Task: inverse folding
């Protein structure tokens, strides 16, 4: 088994290296570099994500303890001061655009969403990362608080982020959404919460042949121009065709909309959904909005299992570099899970990699064997006597 590469080397082979080198050239990332290239930086930061390392010293110590394995990952040296300088100075956009290269590779193999309709399904939402204002003064949020806001377009086919924008926490969700060219194709469906209700923007979605589903505001001014029968057994209250009557709303969105009412069986709470989709059943509309909960679970997962809350650098460039490398690792985990049809969760997959990342094991053998057989798959090391 001595011919086998380490698990980490096999992970790196899954990345489009040629695309990475093109990005480095575009942003002059390796300008006047002797040995610590952008690829070396990526190797170390990705290793920190796999192993869950919190500091530069921790990263350096862990890698130096495994120096005999460096040959298999192409690492030449690791010094925390050099890594710190690279994080501060090298353009984070190298890793941002590399994320989208990995995303395209991942999209080719992701499974479809759970609904019967074939339209692509997305959810747009944002989450806040709290920061210490004294360490990150450029991320000022409130008088004594710092924070970043991560705006995600979540694709339900494969449960992957298909778009990400990082802003300061003061930026409102709809302002960011209106300022971005979201990668949403015609005939797609997107669910958003009330924070994204801007009738000009919603009408732009409609003109782009994109359906939206959101919660209607309680003070929505409208008139009912049509009524449809609903299945009361499913908790549906009504299915109405409406037109907006508010002065500005009716001008910003002059066409018909649809209201669907639902009472939740357990909590007895009533919900009213607003959509421009008149094709799908009323119950499907309610379930599309309910599926928004998946992005909340995604936010919880990345905050608990990726290093995007504690950072090894304090500059804006260093923080953004770490965030984008973390998201690259998430895509790698997703790609491996779908390509190998791994039956367990991403959490379990990430924990396995954390334990054996520098072991010389076949990746396929590792994922196909049971946990108690992992030790048998490792390359046997010679035991050296201390005396």
Result:
């Amino acid at each position: 088994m001595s011919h086998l590469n380490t698990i980490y080397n096999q992970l790196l082979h899954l990345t489009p290296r040629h695309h990475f080198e093109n990005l480095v050239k575009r942003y002059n990332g390796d300008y006047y570099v002797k040995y610590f290239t952008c690829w070396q930086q990526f190797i170390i930061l990705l290793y920190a994500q796999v192993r869950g390392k919190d500091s530069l010293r921790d990263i350096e110590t862990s890698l130096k303890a495994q120096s005999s394995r460096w040959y298999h990952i192409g690492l030449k040296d690791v010094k925390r001061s050099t890594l710190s300088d690279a994080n501060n100075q090298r353009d984070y956009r190298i890793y941002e655009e590399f994320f989208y290269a990995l995303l395209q590779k991942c999209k080719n193999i992701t499974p479809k969403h759970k609904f019967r309709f074939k339209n692509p399904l997305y959810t747009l939402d944002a989450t806040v990362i709290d920061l210490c204002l004294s360490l990150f003064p450029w991320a000022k949020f409130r008088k004594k608080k710092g924070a970043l806001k991560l705006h995600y377009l979540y694709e339900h086919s494969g449960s992957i982020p298909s778009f990400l924008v990082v802003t300061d926490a003061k930026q409102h969700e709809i302002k960011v959404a209106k300022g971005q060219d979201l990668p949403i194709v015609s005939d797609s469906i997107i669910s958003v919460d009330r924070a994204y209700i801007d009738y000009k923007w919603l009408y732009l979605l409609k003109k782009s042949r994109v359906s939206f589903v959101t919660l209607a505001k309680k003070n929505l001014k409208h008139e009912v121009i049509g009524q449809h029968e609903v299945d009361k057994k499913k908790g549906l209250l009504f299915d109405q065709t409406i037109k907006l009557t508010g002065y500005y709303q009716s001008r910003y969105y002059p066409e018909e909309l649809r209201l669907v009412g639902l009472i939740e069986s357990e909590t007895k709470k009533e919900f009213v959904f607003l959509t421009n989709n008149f094709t799908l059943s009323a119950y499907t509309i309610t379930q599309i909005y309910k599926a928004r909960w998946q992005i909340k679970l995604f936010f919880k997962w990345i905050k608990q299992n990726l290093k995007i809350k504690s950072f090894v650098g304090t500059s804006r460039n260093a923080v953004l570099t770490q965030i984008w490398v973390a998201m690259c690792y998430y895509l790698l985990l997703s790609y491996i899970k779908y390509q190998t049809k791994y039956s367990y969760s991403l959490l379990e997959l990430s924990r396995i990699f954390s334990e054996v990342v520098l072991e010389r094991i076949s990746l396929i053998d590792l994922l196909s064997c049971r946990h108690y057989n992992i030790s048998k798959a490792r390359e046997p090391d010679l035991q050296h006597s201390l005396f």
